[in-house]
Automatic annotation (TrEMBL):
Binding site for Mg(2+) 2: D44, D72
Functional summary from the UniProt entry: Catalyzes the ATP-dependent phosphorylation of thiamine-monophosphate (TMP) to form thiamine-pyrophosphate (TPP), the active form of vitamin B1.
Example of a GO biological process term: thiamine diphosphate biosynthetic process
Keyword Lyase in record: no
Upper classification of the organism: Bacteria, Pseudomonadati, Pseudomonadota, Gammaproteobacteria, Aeromonadales
Note: Reaction mechanism of ThiL seems to utilize a direct, inline transfer of the gamma-phosphate of ATP to TMP rather than a phosphorylated enzyme intermediate.
Keywords: ATP-binding, Kinase, Magnesium, Metal-binding, Nucleotide-binding, Thiamine biosynthesis, Transferase
Residues holding Mg(2+) 4: D27, S42, D72
Residues reported in the UniProt entry to bind Mg(2+) 5: D211
Entry-linked InterPro entries: PurM-like_C_dom, PurM-like_C_sf, PurM-like_N, PurM-like_N_sf, ThiL-like
Gene: thiL
Transmembrane segments: none
All residue ranges annotated as the PurM-like N-terminal domain in the record: 25-134
Protein name as it appears in the record: Thiamine-monophosphate kinase
Length: 321
């Protein structure tokens, strides 16, 4: 089976979106952007041996490849619309391709996202996904809007994906009743699309958590020109986390582990009630973990009112080891 046969057989999926005027099969996709809307675009590359294990289940990989990109749209408060996929394969393995497509298109169908183009080539296994979404003019959530006095919030629980990775690597022994939970958190992240949309008129800043809360929140602090103070006792930790590692180890995983793909956002105290109502309607749990303060941009960690020093740092592809 050659490149074009693979594309036709596995990646040509009929779209029900009326805004796709031309999908895969021509030189470009033609897409109808709604009037008075902004176009949100995000691209991520996943490389075998860096972002995922070479023997990772292809269905889980297909899900995760799309989910991590949709998470960026969630952080902007955008409505997911279209996606393009560039896939580099070392060889044609139809069983692997079938599994990958099952995971990818299941999530795409759930969020009504149409595959509108891409590329396929031979080489070391890597996946590049570009997602496109829309949002009303003036409604995009950004990193640079936090204000002094805003509360800092996160959705879900933190560190579970990193714990799942450590379980796969044999670094920790997770109690039997939690093994499936942490592996799912690692391999099947859930993009917080509805929460992001609900935050459009409430949050002053937002981003998704891909590299750990401490490192990611630092982006908001620098972009907004102020200091973020985190209260470690307030970090939302799952029962699986607390049953597996010490509280201090749990903090490290939550702050630096990465791959959570939860949302971190800031909200003025004035909108606290509105926030509770909006996210309750989305069925998303959230926790206040700190506040924004005037001062040198950065992240300050406190435990019981005292400064706390991390033993490790958030993920950085190009940091010297």
């Amino acid at each position: 089976m050659n490149e074009f046969e693979i594309i036709k057989h596995y990646f040509t999926v009929a779209s029900h979106r009326k805004d796709v005027l031309m999908g895969p099969g021509d030189d470009c996709a033609l897409l109808q952007v709604p009037p008075h809307s902004l176009l949100a675009v995000s691209t991520d590359t996943l490389v075998s041996g860096v972002h995922f294990f070479a023997d990772m289940d292809p269905m889980a990989l297909g899900h995760k490849a799309l989910a991590v990109n949709l998470s960026d749209l969630a952080a902007m408060g955008a409505d997911p619309c279209w996606v393009s996929l560039a896939l580099t394969l070392p060889e044609v393995d139809e069983s692997w391709i079938k599994g990958f497509c099952a995971g990818f298109f299941e999530l795409a169908e759930y969020y009504n996202v149409a595959l509108v183009g891409g590329d396929m080539t031979r080489g070391p296994l890597s996946i590049t996904v570009t997602v496109h979404g829309t949002l009303p003019e003036g409604k995009g959530l950004r990193r640079n809007g936090a204000r002094v006095g805003d509360g800092i919030y996160v959705t879900g629980t933190l560190g579970d994906a990193a714990l799942g990775l450590q379980q796969v690597q044999g670094k920790v022994t997770v109690p039997e009743q939690y093994k499936d939970f942490v592996r799912t958190k690692f391999e099947h992240p859930h993009p917080r699309i509805l929460a992001g949309q609900a935050l459009r008129d409430i949050a002053t800043s937002a981003l998704d958590l891909s590299d750990g809360l401490a490192g990611d929140l630092a982006h908001v602090a620098r972009a907004s020109g102020m200091r973020a103070q985190l209260e470690l006792e307030q970090l939302p930790l799952s029962a699986a986390m607390l049953a597996t590692v010490s509280r201090e180890q749990a903090w490290e995983l939550a702050l630096t582990g990465g791959d959570d793909y939860e949302l971190c956002f800031t909200v003025p105290e004035l909108y606290r009630g509105q926030l509770e109502t909006a996210l309750a309607h989305c069925g998303v749990k959230f926790t206040r973990v700190g506040r924004m303060l005037a001062g040198e941009p950065g992240v300050e960690l406190t435990s019981k009112g005292r400064p706390y020093q991390l033993a490790s740092q958030s993920w950085d592809h190009f940091r010297s080891v």
